[in-house]
């Protein structure tokens, strides 16, 4: 039991972080000043060029000034957005189509390194200006400009080198805290629906045989937030890319799967389609990529095609289909498993088309299917061509060849 006065004092001290908020708004005002300076310099350059008084050296120096102003404005953006989220309060940009890629993993160490590299870039522009205008720059100024620039480079390199061990130590701390949280909370039990109670589509049980379980490879523990996202995703089981038996499929693009494991496709709002016979590991790979996306800071939702059909049908029956599709935008990645095992009627196929069309260039989809995209008319009928067109436009299609892993294990056990 925590001491109440001590806890209250701690909360009060932590609340003082809001004193920094006006500082960041002051930086916003400073950015406005730089916007004014940029257009003033641009207008002067245009007037000089129109009047014919602009020499090549003058144009080059003026353009470098504009670049300098833009780089400083970029530096301000990093400090305003990254610093505010790191030291004051989180900015809820999850699912926003313009969310910066670096913001999902920014911390004080990352912010320091980015600031240092931005300062080196600004210093490079200043030094280039001095060399362009070398006839009007003293040798003393050139020497000290070069020395200062090299000092910036050295300090940035040292800071980047020091941030590596610091980041590793921070990651270990997060992992330890996440492990402690899981140990204290215990392993949650899966509780089925009570009689008469409707089961949400995202949490329906998955009556499938267990996926292949090769020897696990040790991996670093994700932090507590990532664990919460993984639990909320509704995965049928936790699968990792490191656990996938790459020797079982007769053929699949290992390099593409490894690249997809970086979860950059989620940020780019691209899709992934796994195609192959039953038991070749499509669900394993889909879940593993979903876990990687959760660890990268993205919210994920997993369900089979039948479960998605039930969810969308219920929303349509309740007159809230548009609201349901909009609510799904909070999840940058949706996973639709087992397309092709059951054909859908025209109304249900239309619901899937609306889902894919709504997610087009707005969010990512991972789809697993036992048949290639060219045969989806067997599942979705006349809706298939338009659906496939949108799904495949920004998609990586990974085909897996081979026999069922489950059947192979059963056959091996029988022969033994």
TrEMBL record:
| InterPro entries registered for this protein in UniProt | AAA+_ATPase, IstB, IstB_ATP-bd, P-loop_NTPase, UPF0114, UPF0114_bac
Identify this protein by name: UPF0114 protein RI060_23600
Q: Which residues cross the membrane?
A: 18-36, 69-88, 109-129, 141-162
The keyword Transmembrane appears for this protein? yes
Q: Where in the cell is it found?
A: Cell membrane
Q: Which domain of life is it from?
A: Bacteria
The gene behind this protein is istB
Q: Name the membrane topology term.
A: Multi-pass membrane protein
Q: Which residue windows does the record flag with biased composition (Basic and acidic residues)? A: 171-184
Coiled coil located at which positions?
none
**Pfam families in the cross-refs:** IstB_IS21, UPF0114
Q: Give the family per the record.
A: Belongs to the UPF0114 family.
Give positions of region: Disordered. 169-222
Checking PANTHER family in the record gives: UPF0114 PROTEIN YQHA
**Key words, A-Z:** Cell membrane, Membrane, Transmembrane, Transmembrane helix
The record ties this protein, via SMART domains, to:
AAA (SM00382)
> Where does the AAA+ ATPase domain lie?
268-401
Q: Which organism is it from?
A: Streptomyces violaceus
